[in-house]
Input
Amino acid sequence: ELKVEQNPLFLSMQEGKNYTIYCNYSTTSDRLYWYRQDPGKSLESLFVLLSNGAVKQEGRLMASLDTKARLSTLHITAAVHDLSATYFCAVSEDDKIIFGKGTRLHILP
Amino acid sequence: DAGVIQSPRHEVTEMGQEVTLRCKPISGHDYLFWYRQTMMRGLELLIYFNNNVPIDDSGMPEDRFSAKMPNASFSTLKIQPSEPRDSAVYFCASSYGSQGYTFGSGTRLTVV
Output
């Protein structure tokens, strides 16, 4: 059974700082997804990572994938308040994707 | 495209009543998924369809839950009878292959 673990589950950080969210998963998979969810809202797709060593960047967010280590990271550079949200990683298994518990990110001004 | 459309946005019902949640996927998408989100359990996959056929319903918690997809543009998730522990946000998502899901806005269900 595929398990997806994120850490930390909660992160409070100052604006301007850098931080990394980690996503570990338990079985081999060829696709990893990162989503963002604002309070009371739906999930928004951020990144789809398809291969070992894949790196994608959008603004202050950068995601990477190491399939051998079964690890993905979401790096936040010079955080701003607008990035406050819950971030989920999800891993594909057959035709479906399984989500981690999410990392609730709170950025203090 | 209007995206994945779910209705209703909010539903409050009394315990024991039947609840039907509705979803219209993005046109051309061949997969449809139903998820449930709670604080305690996070996002749980309930069931998913491929080309209108249910593929995996192992996440459906009990026989009180059922889902149908009579055609490519419509799916329902029904709870009968509803219980307070069913209170959650129910999301529908669709995808074309494994290109990543597009989620609907969700239905917030409260069973009192």
In short: Chain B touches chain A at residues 31, 33, 35, 42-43, 45, 48, 50, 55-56, 91, 93, 98-106 (CB under 8 Å). The two ends of chain B are 36 Å apart (CA to CA). The first strand of chain B starts at residue 5 and ends at 7. Residues 66 and 78 of chain B are 5 Å apart (CA to CA).
